[in-house]
């Protein structure tokens, strides 16, 4: 990109080519114009609903043009990585999408009345039990935030925050932890080969299980099984 000119409702905006990590915001109802020339670039376009996930009225978004925002930039890259490849991590992607949306509301709002937001409470004991049992029974399948949220009558955003308060981690990390623990049990108490264990626990392949296992425990599944048998 060699040239970029933008304006909002006939005024404001900016001139000059886009720089990686910059953000433009377009408040709802305003007319935006942009003119670009040169080579191709990649960018993310994010739409935020008028009402937020808590059901309260969304804060007015202020207009910004070419503001550097490294936090959002890095999380959008992480989101892209989570949904690309042969084994998309949709749980992580959805968590990142909610995090990005909430951050944008805070960073680029004209007003943010915290009193309108209900305090987030931990999950009730029964809800925690239902989620634990559902996850353990579904390790061989893809589990989404929508699945967990619908189970206990919450929105994905409410579930994401309440889950962290109750379990001390995100749903994605908790599910991964349970898959690794289940893999350890099978390695210790069965003769199943690595590919069978991987597919049984929701990993896309033998190599996916191996790389995840090693990053978490510092050894490969084969080494773990070998060491355990020799002890």
Provide a short characterization of the protein structure:
The chain is mainly alpha-helical and about 230 residues long. It has helices spanning about 70-85, 90-105, 125-135, 145-150, 155-165, 170-190, 195-200, 205-215, 220-230, and strands at about 5-10, 20-25, 30-35, 65-70.
Task: Provide an overview of this structure.
The chain is mostly helical. It folds into three domains: 1-118, no CATH class; 123-167; 174-230, Arc Repressor Mutant, subunit A, CATH 1.10.10. It contains nine helices and four strands, in the order ββββααααααααα. It has helices at 70-83, 90-107, 125-137, 145-152, 156-167, 171-189, 194-200, 206-217, 221-230; strands at residues 3-8, 22-23, 32-37, 67-68. The strands form two sheets. A two-stranded antiparallel sheet has the order 1-3. The longest helix has 19 residues, at 171-189. Residues 52-59 and 112-116 have low confidence and may be disordered.
Average pLDDT score: 84
Class computed from helices, strands and strand pairing: mainly alpha
Give the domain tally: 3
Please give the share of residues in helix.
Answer: 40-55%
Q: Major beta sheet, specifics?
A: 2 strands, antiparallel
Order of adjacent strands in the largest pleated sheet? 1-3
Number of helices: 9
Order of helices and strands: EEEEHHHHHHHHH
Strand content: 5-15%
Which stretches of 5+ consecutive residues score pLDDT under 50? 52-59, 112-116
Radius of gyration: 22 Å
Q: For the terminal residues, how far apart are their CA atoms?
A: 61 Å
Given the C-alpha coordinates, what overall shape results? Answer: elongated
Give the beta-strand count.
Answer: 4
């Amino acid at each position: 990109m060699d040239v970029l000119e933008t304006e909002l409702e006939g005024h404001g905006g900016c001139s000059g080519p886009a720089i990686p990590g910059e953000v433009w915001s377009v408040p709802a109802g305003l007319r935006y114009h942009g003119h670009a020339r040169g080579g191709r670039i990649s960018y993310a376009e994010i739409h935020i609903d008028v009402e937020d996930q808590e059901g309260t009225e969304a804060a007015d978004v202020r207009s910004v043009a070419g503001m550097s925002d490294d936090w959002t930039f890095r999380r959008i890259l992480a989101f892209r990585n989570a949904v690309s490849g042969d084994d998309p991590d949709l749980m992580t992607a959805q968590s990142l999408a909610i995090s990005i949306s909430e951050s944008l509301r805070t960073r680029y709002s004209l007003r943010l009345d915290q009193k309108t937001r209900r305090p987030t409470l931990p999950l009730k004991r029964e809800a925690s039990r239902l989620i634990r049992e559902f996850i353990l029974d579904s390790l061989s399948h893809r589990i989404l935030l929508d699945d967990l949220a619908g189970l206990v009558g919450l929105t994905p955003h409410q579930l994401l925050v309440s889950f962290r308060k109750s379990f001390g981690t995100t749903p994605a990390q908790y599910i991964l932890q349970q898959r690794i623990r289940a893999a350890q049990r099978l390695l210790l108490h069965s003769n199943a080969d690595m590919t069978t264990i991987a597919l049984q626990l929701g990993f896309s392949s033998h190599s996916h299980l191996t790389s995840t296992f090693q990053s978490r425990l510092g050894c490969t599944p084969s080494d773990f099984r070998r060491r355990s048998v020799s002890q």
